[in-house]
Amino acid sequence: MLIYDFPDIENIDSDGLICISNEINPQMVLQAYIKGIFPWSASPVTWWSPDPRAVFFPKEFKLNKRMARAFKNSDLNYSFDKAFEQVIKQCAQPRANEDSWISPEFIDVYTSLHNLGFAHSVEAWHKDELCGGIYGIAIGGFFAGESMFSKITNASTFCLAVLMKFLNKNKFSLFDTQVINPHTKMLGAKEIPRKEYLKLLHQAINKTP
Predict the structure, then answer these.
(1) pLDDT class of 9 with cuts at 50, 70, 90
(2) Please, what is the angle between helix 104-115 and helix 26-34, to 10°?
């Protein structure tokens, strides 16, 4: 197996840009995650490890009362790994005032990781129509959430709740959400120093869920 020489991230600036490459492949992605790095753009590929890092702790995840009530009353159905490629392609669709970083090359790499058993998806269905989803990478007791989409209000958040329940049940200890935003903060995401993140990451990836 090729070993990719990512820089030591402990001395990188807080914005977190680690390096730039002209390629991305499944081995690079896995090695990056194990070192606390993730890819975040294509042509060229940029690799990041921001400080602080945004995370969820699966055992602490909880919807607020309004969202929990909506989740309970929803008529959506959920599945795991039933439509991975459809989910990542939906996540790649451009959003308002924002271009997608999920290029066709990214789709190919993460689909390969799915076929290898590292990348996973949760899907929300309304009758037979895919209306929401989330995908990411699992290594040991660590899950890196990559992106999610909704065609129906709250569908992606409900997929996240389904995923968190599964992760907690299977003793995953760390969920990486990379950079905090108002929505993930509302759901309980926390920012922790990069040094603490790397310690928790090492513990998580060496766990057997």
Answers:
(1) confident
(2) 80
Pairing of strands 119-126, 129-139: antiparallel
pLDDT tens for residues 144-174?
999 999 999 999 999 999 999 999 999 999 9
Ordered by where they begin, the domains of the chain are 12-51 (3.30.70.3550), 54-205 (3.40.630.70)
Say if CB 22 and CB 44 are below 8 A apart. Answer: yes
Please give the C-alpha separations between residue 175 and each of 130, 160, 164, 201, in angstroms, as whole numbers. 24, 11, 9, 9
CA-to-CA dists, residue 129 to 8, 25, 86, angstroms: 45, 31, 11
Per-residue pLDDT tens digits for 29-67: 999 999 999 998 877 999 999 999 999 999 999 899 999
- Structure tokens that stand for 169 in this block: 């049940």
